Amino acid sequence: MNFHTRKWVKPEDLNPNGTLFGGSLLRWIDEEAAIYAIVQLGNQRVVTKYISEINFVSASRQGEIIELGITATEFGRTSITLQCEVRNKITRKSILTVDKMVFVNLGEDGLPAPHGRTEIKYIQDQFPDSAVE
């Protein structure tokens, strides 16, 4: 699992119970997953098609730093399937898991289009050695 994004839980992110509001967290996850899909498929035209059961494992409180982990688990002809975990950056305690998120690659016409990808692309594979410092 690749953990790329970190968020600081601020007062505006809290629910009436004083813990991280699930809606805020889901917005962050959908955005991070879309960015991951865009990078993997090399196309800015991707849409969220499906999100499986969301399992809230533990709460997060104001001041905590959380990190979002995303990894590709399957490449379809026009889709990519991802898995997600959110955890506390310091304690590594799991906050949320999503087993399956499906994003669809779109063509210029807005319809599903084949992407030709079959495996995860890592940063070192995407840029020549001279471009990565």
UniProtKB/TrEMBL annotation:
**GO CC entries:** cytosol
Please tell me whether the keyword Hydrolase is annotated for this protein.
Answer: yes
What keywords appear on the UniProt entry? Hydrolase
The UniProt record lists the keyword Oxidoreductase: no
List this protein's GO terms for biological process. Answer: acyl-CoA metabolic process; fatty acid catabolic process
Q: Which Pfam families match?
A: 4HBT
The UniProt record lists the HotDog ACOT-type domain at 1-109
One GO MF term on file is:
long-chain fatty acyl-CoA hydrolase activity
Indicate the family of this protein: Belongs to the acyl coenzyme A hydrolase family.
Q: What is this protein called?
A: Acyl-CoA thioesterase
